[in-house]
Design a protein that fits this description.
Number of helices of chain A: 10
Structural class of chain A: alpha/beta
Strand order of the largest sheet of chain A: 6-7-8-3-9-10
Distance between the termini of chain A: 37 Å
CATH architecture of the largest domain in chain A: 3-Layer(aba) Sandwich
CATH superfamily of the largest domain in chain A: P-loop containing nucleotide triphosphate hydrolases
Number of domains of chain B: 1
Order of helices and strands of chain B: HHHHHEEEEHHHHEHHHHH
Oligomer: heterodimer
Radius of gyration of chain B: 21 Å
Distance between the termini of chain B: 18 Å
Shape of chain B: globular
Strand order of the largest sheet of chain B: 2-1-3
Number of domains of chain A: 2
Radius of gyration of chain A: 19 Å
Number of strands of chain A: 10
Structural class of chain B: mainly alpha
CATH topology of chain B: ABC transporter involved in vitamin B12 uptake, BtuC
Low-confidence stretches of chain B: 349-356
Helix content of chain B: 55-70%
Strand content of chain B: 5-15%
CATH class of the largest domain in chain A: Alpha Beta
Number of strands of chain B: 5
Order of helices and strands of chain A: EEEHEEHEHHHHEHEHEEHH
Largest sheet of chain A: 6 strands, mixed
Mean pLDDT of chain B: 88
Number of helices of chain B: 14
Largest interface: A-B, 45 and 30 residues
Low-confidence stretches of chain A: none
CATH topology of the largest domain in chain A: Rossmann fold
CATH class of chain B: Mainly Alpha
Chain lengths: 252, 356
């Protein structure tokens, strides 16, 4: 059964059809790529999936549950987490606290308990720290846990965003250009990280990426978007050799 | 690693508490040895009030990252609701301590409720717009109290916004809030010791809140609203919570202030927008988000005009120079570096600007 099912999703801004009749089926545990030229509507699709925009029409179903029309917070609680194209960290919080904010809804105690430092505060905070450190370790950030997020180098900030997204315990992880601005070594490491996350957490991942090496290296299936419409979809190698895709996006 | 961090915040907070307690001990010693003029003694409770106000406002400005210019309004609500209660129960509750405690609760809760009522529409706005609207709300509260007449007689409460005569009270009626003349005859239940205890309480609430799950949620909204939403943080709830807690603490400041005066009036001098701006000056000069700085700035900037009284005409000149010097000391990057070096020399943990 598909974990994410998207049917004829459309949205227009003024006269511009940003996304037109978009469809997507992702199986559980799949690593799925969404590619296409700049302005094709890839990030808009992410914003539709996470409730930032409300679609004009179409449906989004996650694990059998209807998500259409829900807001960002509800959708996150249903199990979609994302990272952003332009990094959005909590820059004045520590690396550890960034991840702990991601744990906010799974590990709870009341404000009063927090102010009065009651036993539940101590117990929960300890569990939160343990869980957050586990996640940071996966991304090799454990040693920087006390740094301010804004003091991390660029590549690590991207990783921290992924760690924070994973902290919300999602069923589906959306990565918006995770390799943007990374050098080839960092990209190679990131590919390992993404694969590792998929295998370790049995995560389903949908990613937007322009780096074809990364896409060809780890994505199992692809959808190509052009002018808001699906140009091609299917197995990665087949799509990358599709003449339509080569003309519209990849180039000869 | 984790313990180190906990220790660091713990140590930092401890230093802040200690600064307050040691200053209290020093001032008490000065009073006992007769080294403090009566003018200065009269300033002690207002200083405590201003410290509480600065801490409360820092919760909104530094932790939530929104600008509020209406905190004098919340202080006003706390002051009048509690003074109203105290005057009403002057005979019913002879125990001053208990009466003041109840007055505190009432003042804080009323101010927090006002915080919520005002926060719901206002917190949709950002930055300058929020500042302007909160400023207006602060003024509305003050001006409304100025025309409010409340009395009580054997038939119950009477209310008017015209004059005392239109309260239509029986002969045994007692005017509690007398319009622009405010509340007279409030028991002066507060003193310096209570003021310092309330400062410690405010500090306790603000520091512990900041270092908890709720505080992290509030700060995540400050740092990146969109990202906070994407990890499932309820923006409205936490914004409102921070605003209401801050308003409640401002209410406590108001209670302290009101019970130090026998006549409480809602004058611009007490609760006007220039007071709100003064609180903001404390927060900004102390370092936004830095609780210890807020305390120091509030104390220094309240004492300064009094200490400089002898210089008459040059007073405001020096005041302005000190403002600029403090601004440089708390906010210039090179000064922060220098400060850290000095702290390191004393063998203490590095105090970074986001320590609190």
């Amino acid at each position: 059964m598909a974990i994410l099912e998207v049917n004829n999703l459309s949205i227009s801004f003024g006269g511009l059809m940003a996304v037109n009749d978009f469809g997507l089926n992702i199986e559980e545990g799949q690593l799925y790529g969404l590619i296409g030229p700049n302005g094709a509507g890839k990030t808009t699709v992410f914003n539709l999936l996470t409730g930032v925009y409300k679609p004009d029409q179409g449906r989004v179903i996650l694990d059998g549950k209807e998500l259409t029309g829900k807001n960002t917070i509800e959708i996150n609680q249903e199990g979609i987490a994302r990272t952003f194209q332009n990094i959005r960290l909590f820059s004045q919080l520590s690396v550890l606290d960034n991840v702990k904010v991601g744990l906010h809804n799974d590990y709870t105690y009341s404000t009063i308990e927090g102010i009065l430092r009651l036993p539940r505060y101590k117990k929960t905070e300890k569990l939160m720290t343990e869980r957050a450190m586990e996640l940071l370790e996966v991304f090799g950030l454990a040693d920087e846990a006390e740094y301010l997020a804004s003091n991390l180098p660029y590549g690590k900030q991207r990783k921290l965003e992924m760690a924070r997204a994973l902290a919300t315990n999602p069923k589906l992880l959306l990565l918006d250009e995770p390799a943007a601005g990374m050098n080839p070594n960092e990209t190679a490491e990131l590919m390992e990280n993404i694969k590792f996350v998929r295998d370790k957490f049995k995560m389903t991942i949908l990613l937007i990426e322009h780096d074809m090496k990364l896409v060809a290296g780890i994505c199992e299936k692809l959808t190509v978007l052009n002018f808001g419409k699906v140009l091609a979809e299917g197995e990665t190698s087949a799509v990358l050799h599709d003449p339509k895709v080569i003309t519209a996006y990849l180039g000869e | 690693m984790r313990d180190k961090k906990l220790n660091k915040t713990f140590k930092n907070n401890l230093i802040t508490y200690l600064i307050v307690i040691i200053s209290y001990a020093l001032v008490q010693a000065m009073i006992l040895s007769g080294n403090l003029s009566s003018l200065m003694q009269g300033l002690l409770v207002p200083i405590c009030t201003y410290v509480i106000m600065a801490l409360a406002l820092n919760l909104v400005v530094g932790v939530l990252g929104e600008l509020s210019l209406g905190h004098a309004g919340f202080m006003c609500v706390g002051a009048f609701s509690s003074a109203f209660f105290s005057k009403l129960t002057l005979e019913a509750i002879p125990n001053a301590g208990l009466r003041f405690f109840l007055a505190l609760l009432i003042g804080a809760v009323c101010a927090a409720i006002f915080g919520i009522i005002i926060g719901i529409p206002v917190l949709r706005l950002k930055g300058d717009y929020l500042a302007i609207v909160t400023l207006a709300f602060g003024e509305i509260i003050k001006n409304f109290i100025n025309v409010m007449y409340v009395g009580k007689d054997s038939n119950g409460f009477h209310f008017s916004i015209k004059d005392v005569a239109s309260l239509n009270m029986e002969d045994d009626g007692l005017v509690i809030i007398n319009g622009a003349q405010g509340i007279t005859g409030t028991p002066t239940d507060s003193n310096f010791t209570i003021g310092v205890l309330l400062i410690l309480f405010t500090l306790f609430v603000v520091l512990n809140l900041t270092n908890s799950r709720t505080g992290r949620a509030i700060m995540s909204i400050r740092d990146n609203r969109i990202a906070a939403e994407s990890v499932g943080i309820n923006i409205t709830k936490y914004k409102l919570m921070a605003f209401a807690i801050s308003a409640g603490l401002a209410g406590i400041g108001g209670v302290l202030y009101a019970h130090n005066l026998s006549t409480l009036t809602a004058l611009p001098k007490n609760f006007g927008y220039n007071m709100s701006i003064m609180f903001l000056v404390f927060v900004v000069l102390g370092g936004i988000g830095n609780m210890r700085g807020s305390i120091i700035a509030a104390v220094v900037l309240t004492l300064l005009p009094e200490l400089l009284r002898g210089l008459s005409d040059y007073r405001m000149l020096i005041y302005a120079v000190v403002l600029i010097a403090m601004m440089i000391f708390t906010s210039a990057p090179s000064m922060i570096e220098y400060r850290e070096k000095i702290m390191a020399k004393f063998g203490k943990n590095k105090v970074s600007k986001e320590a609190e």
